[in-house]
């Protein structure tokens, strides 16, 4: 069997390597031309060319950068995050140590070495300039440090659109700092005449070093918006922890109702925290509405399901609470089965894997308790007063006002208005989010209408009973007034008769006095014994006459009389 000489085999290998390199360079060159058009279809074609180049050379830095930027332009933010997931600060992978070791090893192996001092046949002592040595050292540092700075900028923008605001701020600030340091280091190597922006590559040998002006401005504006949202979120969380629920609601409302939208994941988190503030301030309907919005944006949110189940149990709406607890149980079982939280790997559920078995046991106990209560017939005693936010014994005007406000706020036609202020990572999710929001808002609206009807019927019954009580009280008062009027009519006749009799008595007494005076004047000459006897007899007769007159007038009150000097 004939074998080819070794030098021919080496030449053949070199030929294949050179041809692959040329193919990769051709793919990259064509991809750059297509990307420069800024057309989505052309960028998709460029992405396929970059994928072909990476199939030949998987670690080619320029191809990786073009792929990441193409995915970012096509709004495939999840693909960018999966591609560069090792650079997400808050992401803790199970094999973090091994992955970091392998990535650092590959990074070190791909570093380009620069010979600062020559060896071999060249002379051992050679005069060289210190400035030239400084330029070479700084250029080497620039190439090593600048090699992966595009990752921070591209991944930072992707994390911002995915709702990972803290990670996005760290990545974008790191990328800007690296770009500034790289620009400063490379500017040392240049003379004053050669200083220009056109010579700075971003990464690799054939790209620009610094960011274009438009991209730099975009990143600066994005950073300012991220910082504003994080400041408001921090203030709202601080107010919520301090018990200032109205202040927390105000700050969260500034985020979710702002003129500029926010990413889907960040909005879901803000709605969830505002629901907690509403729950703490006893505004049940608003809290349920925010939980509905959170679950519309993120159907696998454990906190939203748990909070909404507790809210339904608070108002004694046991079937809906049981439904949410069953859904939560399915999520816990899926976490135990898959050994990971539902959703992408960068999503935070605020629950650890080791806590799931204990929570699942307590959840099963709670479900059994609710089923027992439902079997006992506790289905129709919903606390609509707590749902609408009123106290027992409220008036009709208070109920109508509260119902009007809730109807205007939770009308099904306006249930999808919050979707317009959300920035979705995938536009295909918009329709499903709207459907979930519309369905949950319709259920809440019907519950509010049932509560309004029930409370209005109760208030009408109370008003009817109050009318009956008022009628009975009015009839009783009218009867009392009639009796009093009759008594007042009888009283003047008695007074007039008494006055007439009294006048007659006075006249008779005056006549008696005159007759007595005449008798006394005529008998002045009689003896003392005769006068005394006559006086006594006349006085007794006068007393008898006065007593008869008083008895005839109805004046039966006793008259105090002294009998010491009287004798008949």
Task: Describe this structure as you would to a colleague.
This protein starts with 5 loop residues before the first helix and ends in a 16-residue tail after the last helix. The chain is built from 19 helices and two strands. α11 runs antiparallel to α12 and α11 packs parallel to α13. It is mainly alpha-helical and 568 residues long. The chain has a two-stranded parallel sheet with strand order 1-2. InterPro entries: DnaJ_domain, J_dom_sf, TPR-like_helical_dom_sf, TPR_rpt.
Mean pLDDT: 75
Judging from the principal axes of the Cα atoms, what is the shape? elongated
- Give the strand order, joined by hyphens, for the main sheet: 1-2
Main β-sheet: number of strands, strand sense, barrel status? 2 strands, parallel
Strand content: under 5%
Structure annotation, total helices: 19
Distance between the termini: 186 Å
Which percent bin holds the helix content? over 70%
Rounded to the nearest angstrom, the radius of gyration is: 51 Å
The secondary-structure element order is HHHHHHHHHHEHHHHHHHEHH
| Global structural class | mainly alpha
Could you name the ranges where pLDDT drops below 50 across 5 or more consecutive residues? 1-14, 93-130, 197-212, 525-536
Please provide the count of β strands.
2
């Amino acid at each position: 069997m004939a074998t080819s000489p070794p030098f021919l085999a080496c030449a053949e290998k070199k030929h294949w390597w050179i041809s692959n390199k040329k193919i990769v360079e051709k793919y990259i060159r064509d991809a750059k031309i297509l990307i420069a058009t800024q057309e989505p279809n052309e960028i998709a074609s460029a992405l396929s060319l970059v994928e072909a180049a990476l199939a030949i050379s998987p670690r080619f830095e320029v191809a990786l950068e073009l792929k990441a930027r193409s995915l970012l332009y096509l709004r495939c933010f999840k693909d960018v995050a999966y591609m560069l997931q090792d650079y997400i600060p808050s992401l803790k992978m199970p094999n973090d140590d091994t992955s970091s070791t392998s990535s650092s090893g590959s990074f070190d192996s791909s570093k380009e070495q620069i010979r600062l001092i020559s060896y071999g046949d060249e002379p051992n002592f050679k005069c060289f300039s210190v400035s030239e040595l400084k330029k070479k050292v700084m250029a080497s540092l620039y190439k090593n440090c600048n090699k992966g700075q595009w990752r921070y900028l591209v991944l930072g923008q992707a994390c911002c659109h995915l709702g990972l605001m803290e990670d996005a701020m760290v990545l974008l600030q790191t990328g800007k700092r690296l770009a500034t340091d790289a620009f400063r280091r490379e500017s040392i190597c240049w003379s004053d005449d050669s200083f220009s922006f056109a010579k700075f590559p971003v990464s690799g040998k054939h790209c620009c070093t610094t960011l274009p002006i438009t991209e730099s401005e975009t990143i600066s504006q994005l950073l300012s918006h991220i910082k504003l949202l994080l400041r408001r979120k921090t203030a709202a969380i601080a107010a919520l922890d301090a018990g200032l629920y109205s202040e927390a609601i105000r700050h969260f409302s500034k985020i979710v109702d702002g003129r500029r939208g926010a990413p889907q994941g960040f909005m879901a988190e803000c709605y969830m925290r505002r629901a907690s503030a509403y729950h703490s301030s006893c505004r049940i309907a608003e809290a349920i509405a925010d939980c509905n919005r959170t679950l519309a944006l993120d159907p696998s949110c454990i906190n939203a399901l748990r909070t909404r189940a507790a809210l339904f149990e608070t108002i004694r709406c046991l079937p809906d609470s049981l439904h949410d607890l069953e859904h939560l149980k399915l999520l816990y079982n899926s976490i135990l089965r898959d050994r990971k939280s539902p959703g992408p790997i960068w999503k935070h559920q605020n629950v650890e894997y080791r806590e799931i078995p204990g929570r699942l046991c307590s959840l099963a106990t709670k479900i059994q308790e609710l089923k027992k209560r439902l079997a006992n017939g506790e289905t129709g005693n919903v606390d609509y007063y707590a749902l609408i936010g009123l106290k027992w014994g409220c008036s009709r005007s208070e109920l109508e006002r509260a119902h009007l406000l809730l109807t205007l706020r939770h009308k099904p036609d306006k249930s999808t208005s919050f979707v317009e202020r959300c920035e979705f990572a995938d536009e295909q999710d918009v329709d499903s989010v709207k459907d979930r929001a519309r369905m949950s808002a319709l259920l809440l609206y019907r519950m509010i209408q049932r509560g309004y009807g029930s409370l209005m019927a109760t208030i009408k019954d109370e008003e009817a009973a109050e009318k009956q009580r008022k009628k009975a009280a009015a009839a009783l008062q009218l009867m009392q007034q009639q009796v009093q009027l009759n008594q007042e009519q009888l009283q003047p006749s008695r007074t007039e008769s008494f006055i007439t009799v009294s006048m007659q008595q006075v006249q008779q007494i005056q006549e008696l006095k005159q007759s007595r005076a005449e008798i006394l004047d005529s008998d002045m000459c009689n003896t003392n014994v005769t006068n005394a006897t006559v006086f006594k007899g006349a006085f007794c007769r006068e007393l008898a006459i006065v007593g008869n007159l008083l008895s005839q007038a109805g004046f039966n009150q006793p008259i105090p009389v002294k009998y010491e000097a009287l004798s008949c």
